[in-house]
Design a protein that fits this description.
Blueprint: E1 3-12, E2 15-24, E3 27-32, E4 40-43, E5 47-51, E6 53-58, H1 74-83, H2 89-105, E7 108-113, H3 122-136, E8 139-142, H4 171-185, E9 192-194, H5 206-219, E10 223-227, H6 231-241, H7 245-252, E11 259-263, H8 269-278, E12 281-284, H9 286-291, H10 299-305, E13 308-311, H11 324-333, H12 348-362, E14 380-384, H13 396-402, E15 409-414, E16 417-421, E17 424-425, H14 430-439, H15 450-462
Helix pairs in contact: 1-15, 2-3, 3-4, 4-5, 7-8, 11-12, 12-13
């Protein structure tokens, strides 16, 4: 847990300095040249040291469906997802490990897993993900994904009076499961955090939201939800509430500085102001928004309004990857085509801060994580600047964000514990993980979905596609 990184390159304002970084008992204790070596000496020469990034929104168990769902908008994509073979707990375990590995190898030391729960095995699902994340050592924020309305309720009614099947589990039963999970698994000191996480306004009643607010207040927990990912959800909010979803969530008290909101593609100016006033955080998931045709979130407007923004990969079958550096790159340069004034474009250094300190702020941990600061926890990543994809020598952060970095993480620590050494995960056997993922899957082509066939006519009608 004690080590000293010698002669490493760190970002300093708009330039770089070569210095030493000292870590004692999992905490950064000194940053200065020529420090006394405490604990293990780490050679930082020709390496860039950055705080660990946050993969601030994903669904780990979707790994089993990646590459298997054809191009569809979210509402129909979800219908296709529901058609696929239900998960078992061993798949939950393996996909949580896989998500953690890909996050770590792309610079992430924390993951927010909006975890899909196996019906009837909700607590076992959470326990399995906890076991996986503790084994690998990543800092985990497990946000059990909950809803209390059926899938068809997530599509606007239009002018048709529809009756939706009741959800299989009551609101009170769902909230009781989450409270039990909090009591059993919420151990921040051990790197495992539980969040209250209604999936979104499209599939959740106000009773579920207010129940989550009560649990958040009672146990001092962060809150996580999808918000206005698609145009259909914007239409649905108007039907349900007669106002924007953001205004409604503010009225019921869901929005505050403990709240992270994934996507936020279809927000109006008044919505943006509400997010700024409530100090809520937007998690930008550019790859899934493109993959599902959801739209481009107006991230530069959010930043200009003072909204905290960070990045997520989203689930591994709506993005089909958990490469955090890829999400950061696309999430930065995508807005060069939506913002005509190039002086407002997101710079590589700004992107790095959004991915690290922005993620920490969203989880109310900016005093503990997210920057190379004496007194903060040692969630650190050391990048190899001799790697071919980071050469020739120009601007290291520019290369990291704007380039196509491959196998560039030399070392990574979470809470001072070394998780990656010389580019290799140290805590689990990666070859065994790959073999298990291979053995429990099979080659398949994209198949037709019964759910999509049933829902598509109504979706096309209310979205004006006929």
């Amino acid at each position: 847990m004690n080590f000293t990184i010698k002669n490493t390159l760190i970002n300093f304002t708009d330039s770089y300095i070569t210095t030493d970084v000292q870590v004692v008992n999992g905490q950064i204790t000194a940053i200065a040249p020529n420090l006394e070596i405490i604990g293990t000496e780490i050679n930082g020469e020709n390496k860039l040291l950055l705080p660990g990034f946050f993969n601030a929104h994903t669904h780990s168990s979707e790994m089993w469906q990646r590459g298997a769902i054809p191009p569809l908008p979210l509402e129909l994509w979800l219908s296709h997802l529901y058609d696929l073979t239900p998960l078992d707990t061993e798949q939950v375990y393996l996909s949580a490990l896989g998500t953690a590995v890909e996050t770590l190898l792309s610079g992430g030391t924390s993951v927010v897993d909006h975890l899909v729960l196996i019906p009837g095995q909700e607590l076992e699902t959470i326990a399995t993900a906890v076991r996986a994340y503790q084994e690998i050592g990543i800092r985990a924020f497990i946000a059990p994904l909950i809803q209390d309305e059926s899938l068809s309720a997530g599509i606007p009614n239009g002018k048709i009076d529809l009756n939706h099947e009741p959800y299989f589990r009551s609101t009170s039963e769902t909230l009781a499961i989450i409270e039990t999970a909090i009591k059993q698994f919420h151990h921040p000191e051990a790197g495992i955090n539980i969040l209250v996480a209604p999936t979104g306004i499209q599939l959740c009643s106000d009773d579920l939201f207010t129940g989550c607010i009560a649990l958040s207040n009672k146990y001092n927990l962060c809150r996580h939800s999808h918000l206005l990912e698609t145009k259909a959800q914007e239409k649905l909010a108007e039907e349900k509430y007669g106002c924007s979803a953001v205004q409604h969530l503010q009225e019921i008290g869901f929005l505050n500085n403990y709240t992270t909101l994934a996507h936020c593609v279809w927000l109006k100016e008044t919505d943006i102001n509400i997010l700024a006033q409530t100090q809520s955080t937007v998690v930008h998931n550019p790859l899934s928004n493109l993959r599902l045709g959801s739209g481009i979130a107006p991230i530069i407007k959010y930043l200009q309004a003072g909204v905290n923004v960070t990045f997520g990969c989203d689930g591994a079958s709506s993005n089909d990857s958990q490469d955090l550096l890829e999400a950061i790159k696309i999430g930065s340069i995508l807005h060069n085509v939506t913002e005509p004034d190039y002086q407002n474009w997101i710079t590589p250094r700004q992107a790095i801060e959004m991915a690290s300190l922005g993620g920490a702020k969203g989880l109310n941990l900016e005093n503990e994580l997210g920057s190379l600061t004496v007194g903060k926890k040692a969630d650190l990543v050391l990048y190899d600047l001799n790697n071919l994809s980071l050469l020739p020598r120009t601007d290291p952060i520019g290369l990291l964000v704007l380039g196509r970095p491959v196998n560039v993480v030399n070392s990574a620590w979470v809470n001072g514990k070394k998780i990656i050494n010389n580019g290799q995960i140290t805590t689990i056997n990666i070859d065994e993980l790959k073999q298990e993922l291979f053995n429990r899957s099979h080659w398949e082509t994209q198949q037709e979905s019964v759910n999509v066939a049933n829902l598509a006519p109504h979706y096309r009608q209310v979205m004006g596609l006929n």
